[in-house]
Amino acid sequence: MADDSTKGVDNVIRGPWRTTKTITKAKSEKVAIDMLFVEDMAESVMIPMIQSFNENGLDIKNDTFVQEVGFMNEVVKSLVFRHLGYKHPMQDLIKNVMTVKTETAEDVYAAFDGELVEQISKAADAVIKKGDDDAGKD
Predict the structure, then answer these.
(1) Taking 70 as the threshold, does the pLDDT of residue 7 lie above it?
(2) Of 16, 44, 78, 93, which has the fewest beta carbons less than 10 angstroms from its beta carbon?
(3) How far apart are CA 34 and CA 36, in angstroms?
(4) pLDDT tens digits, one per residue of 89-109
């Protein structure tokens, strides 16, 4: 029989522990099906768009183009995630940089806050630079 005493042991944390959340097989399968749907939707939107860009002379092999298309792909996925009831990190960004404007009942549009995106980008650059500086200290 094992000794259950804690005498001489200083690195043991005693419970009780919260119970873990159990995910059923059906829920797991639904999530997997939903993620396939998200990928299919994004692909069905992005591939024709990329082909159209290519047909109209845009350099689709350029690294910047690949970054921008990757960003748009995440925006499309975010939209489908929201429709299915899932969170996606792009949803908060979109909510912050896009505002719905209503002129008349028929004239509803989204306005882009470019100044805010510039501020976010500068802040991100500073965080990335700090991370690079901190990495060089090791």
Answers:
(1) no
(2) 16
(3) 5
(4) 999 999 999 999 999 888 999
Amino acid found at 136 = G
Among all chains, which residue has been given the structure tokens 């501020």? Answer: 119
Check pLDDT > 90 for residue 19.
no
| pLDDT higher than 60, residue 70 | yes
Please give the residue range of the domain that contains residue 126.
Answer: 88-133
| Burial of 23 from C-beta contacts in 10 A (0-12 / 13-18 / 19+) | exposed
CA end-to-end distance (rounded Å), the chain: 48
Residue 4: per-residue pLDDT: 58
- Please report, for residues 96, 98, 101, 103, the alpha-carbon distance to residue 107 in angstroms, rounded to integers and kept in the order given: 21, 16, 8, 5
Same domain, 81 and 35: yes
Task: Please give the structure tokens belonging to residue 99.
Answer: 């505002």
Q: Which residue has the tokens 């896009």?
A: 98
Q: What is the mean pLDDT of residues 60-67?
A: 96
The total domain count for the chain is 2
**Distance separating alpha carbons of residues 43 and 48, to the nearest angstrom:** 8
